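Justification of resources, computational component.

The compute hours requested in this renewal are based largely on the per-chain cost of generating structure records like the one below. Each record pairs the submitted sequence with a full C-alpha cell output. That output is archived, and it is also reused by downstream analysis tasks.
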Amino acid sequence: MGMLAAIGGEKDIVKESKRTKIIVITIHREHMEKWQEEIKELPLLDVSNEEAGAILQNAKYKPNICVDS
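The structure output for this chain reads:
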C-alpha cells in the first residue's frame, strides 16, 4: 500500500469517527430532551397518585353498605 493510500484510509477513518460522534451526540440530545419532558410530568403524576391514595384511604374507612332491591 502506498503512502497516499494509507493517508486516504486514515482520512476515511477520521470522517467515519466524526460521523459516529455526531450520531451519538444527536441520540444523546434526543434522549435528554425526552427525559426532561418526562421529569416535567412527574409532579403531575405525583399529585394524581396522592389524590388516588386519598380516595382509597377514604374508601377504606367508609362502611360498606349493601342495598337489597
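The mean pLDDT is 85. The helical segments are 3-61.
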